[in-house]
Amino acid sequence: MYRTNIQGFLFNWIYSQKGIVVGNSCSFEDIYKNMTNLFYSVDFLPQEILEEIKRKVFNIPELKTLIQKVKNKRAPRFVLIGDSGAGKSTLINAIAGYYAVQESDVHAGTKNAEHIHIKDEDGKTLWEFLDTRGVSEQSKTPVTKAEDQLINDINTMSPDAIVYVRKADDRTNIDSKLAFLKNITEKMYETKKVLPSIIVVSSQCDKLTPSSICDPKIYTKNKRKMANIKERENQLEKLFREHSLNVKTILSTSALVEWSLKSEKLIGLSKKEQMQYLKIDYRYNIDLLREMIMDSLQSESSKISFSMFLRVRESLAEKITEIFADVSSHLALSPMSAADILSSLRVLLVMFIAVLSGQKLSRESADEKIALFYEEDLRFSFFDMVQEISSSFTTTFFAKGSVVSAKTAAEEMKLIGSKSREFFNG
Fold it and tell me: Beta strand 125-131 with 161-167: parallel, antiparallel or unpaired?
């Protein structure tokens, strides 16, 4: 068994590595993916045993519930609100990463609220936007009618957040527009009982003085330009605060992209085909905006709550340990020698509990962890002694010896699971 003398420095080094803390940035989707990959990558156990463990693990009720949420996850949904000319359609294209919707520099691009689905090449929806009429256009309609129409569109969509787009160099009065936005959010609250997240985008920040500098690689090093960008963000923050609108974030962006092909021809091409006509790409903070948008998701079907997983993680680890203990018990009852298989099972259990904590462990590293467990806990020596005695019993009294071996194997596996949970989860 594990009788290797691990030197003190190795013991201390490995234990210093246990603190890869899983934070809120981790997702259950990643953990589920790693769990699945672990089963596929294991080549040191008989396939029938591996399949039995896999079947039992993925039938744990709490795990099945979380997995179902992953499989039912829909694309994120957002409402874009802002004046005509603020660049809402251009922003959608920048987020999508290709020319997905028609843009217009001359007239109001969106006549009515428009549902836009950004899809991948397989037709799967990646993003869903509700591109509304410009706020100025809304104000030409009687206020109540405009609000009711927009609220109806929004509630039908059930968005995860509102993205308010305001041109960075727009100095027109914004009070009536923010009052309009506040009324909308309050009516959304009346219907959904949840205030929507608001992300404010100060668009076309490349047009701020000095406007001749359009390349973000250059103007991010220009103190004057960056000071103007920051000043505009501060002004917007103050205005939203004065209207008691809680904002998740205010972000300056540029969606400046130029193509060498007319837009009406671009729109019919695939993303890959469009890229050959890309002339200039001066997008700024678009990747950061994507991250903030994804981080703002409130719908449980859009983002699996990691806190939900944390609440059941310990229970999952215990139930998985019980499954391994049960399999070990049945293996030990076998008249054939199962020592090597039991040893491999212990390794897999340690690797599995590591995955539940958001970490990945090689077979060799898991073996080292088990060696440490054996060295620090005398109960493992007792298990070794019992196994040796039960082996001699098995030669003469097969039934009694097998029963003792089965119970010992199960208890040893439970202790491995307990030490692993303590090691990885604290």
Answer: unpaired
> Would you kindly state where each structural domain of the chain is located, as residue ranges?
8-71+305-425, 77-295
Residue 331 has pLDDT above 70, yes or no: yes
- CA 25 – CA 37 distance, rounded (Å): 21
- Tell me which residue of 324, 378, 327 sits closest to 351, measured CA to CA: 324
Classify residue 305 as exposed, middle or buried by CB count within 10 Å of its CB (0-12, 13-18, 19+). Answer: middle
Three-class DSSP category at 197: strand
Residue 388 is predicted with a pLDDT of 54
For domain 77-295, give the CATH superfamily: P-loop containing nucleotide triphosphate hydrolases (3.40.50.300)
- In this prediction, residue 404 has a pLDDT band, given cuts at 50, 70 and 90, of low
Phi, psi of 268 (to 5 degrees): -90, 0
CA distances from 379 to 3, 144, 369, 388, 397 (A): 14, 74, 16, 15, 25
350 — pLDDT class (breaks 50, 70, 90): very high
Residue positions counted in the chain: 426
CA–CA separation, 421 and 242 (whole Å): 50
> Is 319 in a helix, a strand, or coil?
helix
What pLDDT was estimated at residue 276?
A: 94
CA-to-CA dists, residue 288 to 77, 250, 254, 293, angstroms: 17, 11, 12, 9
Burial class (CB in 10 A: 0-12, 13-18, 19+), 160: buried
Q: Where are the beta strands (DSSP E) in 260-392?
A: 278-284
Q: If you search the block for the tokens 């399949």, which residue do you land on?
A: 51
- What is the pLDDT, as a whole number, of residue 135? 57
* Cα–Cα distance for residue pair 411/325, rounded to 1 Å: 7
